[in-house]
Amino acid sequence: MSGSDAHRTIETVWRMESPRLIAGLARLTRDVGRAEELAQDALVAALKQWPEEGVPRNPAAWLMQVAKHRALDTARHEIMARRKQDEIGRDIESEGPAMPDLDEALDDEVGDDLLRLIFTACHPVLPKEARIALTLRLLGGLTTDEIARAFLVPEPTMAQRIVRAKKTLSEAKVPYEVPAGAELGERLASVLEVVYLIFNEGYAATAGEDWVRPGLCEEALRLGRILAARASDEPEVHGLVALMELQASRFRARVGPDGEPILLLDQNRARWDRLLIGRGLAALERAQQLAGVVPGPYLLQAALAACHARARTAEETDWKRIVALYTVLGQVTPSPVVELNRAVAVSMADGPAAGLALVEALAGEPALKRYHLLPGVRGDLLAKLGRHQEAAEAFEHAVALTQNARERALMEERAAKERAADS
């Protein structure tokens, strides 16, 4: 194998195995930062040895063995100075020096290890931005540069954010565990929020040259499925998985051949992934079986997505039900964005004038002041009412607010079309 082939293999293995590797090491060290350092040491060793000696039969087990040996060496050198390292050393030594079944031992607990790592990375002691960054770093396998570019901050800034997050977890002595009781509910909400924020950034990128970033959605779905397997009695976990599966089913139809956005009502629904739709509807059914009297926000949003998934054509969409679901969602989680989405549904159910009246009422909302979809929706409704000049001005306002190149181009095209219709 050539050096370049080996490096590509190492990169692929690292993307696939680093979350499991870090999770397993964090179980031993009880320190997320230390676990990542050990995993990086194993990666460096692979970069040195694999191009010369070939890729081992079980790369994941090889990486874990190297990382554990490195941890043991460190523990032996510091055993008198740091009791914590002494405990780590005893834990590792108890597994036997040869460690013949490392991959099997890791697989036995990998689901629980990853779940613990998710809850640790999403601990509320960290600010939201740090939780997202650390989750993408540890569980998404993204580099600091990739995370920085995804959220439009300089790489040094993101690096500092990640370092501070790991230091905060260590100093706060955050336990490496899945919480129980009331704390589980509190922490679970934070975990679900982070996973969905990651998914949303992939589904409709806030900035950059691409409208969608499927890789981020795939990572969020993977994390959601892990949560659903391990927190199987939590309705909102299944609700979030259902929502992501249903939305991800539209990926092939969401962009044109040149990456241009295709809006929901214009999509070729034959290109929607029926397998993902089936999985999403099954997860929604499970969430509904578990839910209490008042459904949670992810379950409600999944029910909204299901209305679209069940409609074979845009004309078959049950907009009355969608309006009703948005009304309940607005009661459960009041938000001007929810009200804007409800206005769109009302416009489809009762006509653009009815929707526009609701949109105009949101014009003074401080939270929507810089939200490009408010003038975008307004422009669309004005265009349907034949108010072309006002529609063009609204689309031009949206152009000024959006940071995504694809959406900007779409809004510019809509504005030009309305200007032409008005002349």
TrEMBL record:
Residues 187-287 form the DUF6596 domain. Residues 17-77 form the RNA polymerase sigma-70 region domain. Signal peptide: none annotated. Keywords: DNA-binding, Sigma factor, Transcription, Transcription regulation. Residues 118-169 form the RNA polymerase sigma factor 70 region 4 type domain. It comes from the Bacteria. PANTHER family: BLL0085 PROTEIN, BLL6612 PROTEIN-RELATED. Belongs to the sigma-70 factor family. ECF subfamily. This is RNA polymerase sigma factor.
